[in-house]
Design brief:
2 copies of one chain form a homodimer. By secondary structure, chain A is an all-alpha fold. Helices cover 62% and strands 0% of the residues of chain A. Chain A binds a DNA duplex (30 and 30 nucleotides) through loops.
DNA sequence: CGCTTAAGCTTACGGTGTAAGCCTGTAAAG
DNA sequence: CTTTACAGGCTTACACCGTAAGCTTAAGCG
């Protein structure tokens, strides 16, 4: 019965580790939001005292760095052979989906530069795909940067938008009565026609708007290809 | 001598006010960074106790909202008659410069939706300019959103990049020795040729890269104009 | 003058990150 | 087998945070 010797069997007590700490942090933050991540809370989740965490993690900032690293690893890096347009598109959607799965991560990721292995390796892969596609060296860098800017910028806003259809309709109603006297008529008209108010069946709210900008950028990049 | 009556003349003691609190907060944050903004710190800056602030401001979150509002007001809104390309470009650069002037603001602005009068009025103006330019209604919304995504996304990264030339060179050196064994060759090559390493006299570091993406987007939008 | 009331102050509470040091079970060394 | 070292947990403590509750003072007004 006893795996090794005694283990007192009262409680399994798996030993702590950086890995386990970060996993628990991720679970905690996904469930209760980033503002509920405190060293004491996190420790409690692991049935341990706060200061014990410091044996496996330098400080809270290191926990945040670890979280970012976990999230970055969730993002798909298309294999090197992939045609550049498809590769860029898949990457963009993967970033977006990953962040929407962990909305708290949006601010975190960009606020700490922390290159980190994941980011470097990602950058190198993307650049190699662009190079193979025939882009000039300085265009590779800029295309990479530009796509990331757009994607992160878009998603950063998106995480604050209403996800439930009822909330979306309510927002329009409230805006309408706020602007009852015809202030901001352009804004009003545009909102009424916003694509996220009339979704095709099965369509998710802000997908189309995201894709629009993405394709516009990819089109623009394609024109920069020699010939 | 006495302006009104007594004033005890020992200390002028201008009365507190929401306005004064926010101005002081802005000054504090610009000087010592966002992490040094605490109610006690802020109060001290005004020669006052922390709890006194709450007579003019609901709570710390309201202070942050106020800061965002101040920053948004610093951004230029081109007048309605402006040709659309110039208007969009000026707006983009104004956003970028404003945020670079207050780097702490980048995270703050996007993290709190808080439409706020400034944002609404800005949106309406931009949309009207796009409408007058002849863009279809649903394109107006998307063009607006896309530009903002790109600009905020770009600047959000930029605030973390090295500003001093020496730091920039050092970064390349450190990266080089980190990748000594030829890992990530594409990354290495691209970095060596990055535009911010060979600046024309008077040129600021990341201007060209920003403009590149901006023009690419504007070009793409222009193609969407009927005819 | 006296009253009302707003503006500033004091105190206090429950939270935070983390420095310093203790305690104990396990594993290596003799 | 015994002794020792130490890793991995715990306890205590400190300085700071946002802010609730209530007190004090000063200004404005009849």
């Amino acid at each position: 019965m006893a795996l090794k010797k005694k283990t007192t069997q009262s409680s399994p007590r798996k030993p702590l580790s950086r890995e386990r700490v970060l996993k628990a942090a991720l679970a905690l933050v996904d469930k209760d939001g980033i503002e509920s991540l405190s060293m004491r809370n996190l420790a409690a989740k692991l049935s341990v005292e706060a200061m014990s965490l410091y044996k496996h993690v330098a400080n809270k900032d290191a926990v945040l760095d670890g979280l970012v690293e976990l999230i970055l690893r969730e993002m798909e890096i298309p294999p090197v052979g992939t045609p550049w347009r498809e590769a860029m598109r898949r990457r963009a959607w993967s970033v977006r989906h990953t962040i929407l799965r962990h909305p708290w991560a949006s601010v975190l990721i960009e606020s700490r530069l922390a290159p980190g292995e994941a980011r470097l390796s990602y950058a190198d892969t993307v650049l190699s795909i662009l190079k193979n596609a025939g882009f000039a060296t300085e265009v590779q860098y800029r295309a990479f940067q530009m796509l990331d800017s757009y994607v992160y910028g878009y998603v950063l806003q998106e995480v604050n938008w209403p996800t439930k259809e009822s909330d979306r309709k309510m927002l329009v109603v409230r805006l309408k009565e706020f602007l009852h006297d015809g202030r901001y008529p352009n804004l009003m008209k545009v909102i009424e026609q916003a694509s996220w108010l009339k979704l095709a069946p099965g369509e998710k709210p802000y997908d189309a708007d995201f894709e629009f900008g993405l394709q516009l950028i990819l089109d623009g990049l394609e024109r920069l290809l020699p010939r």
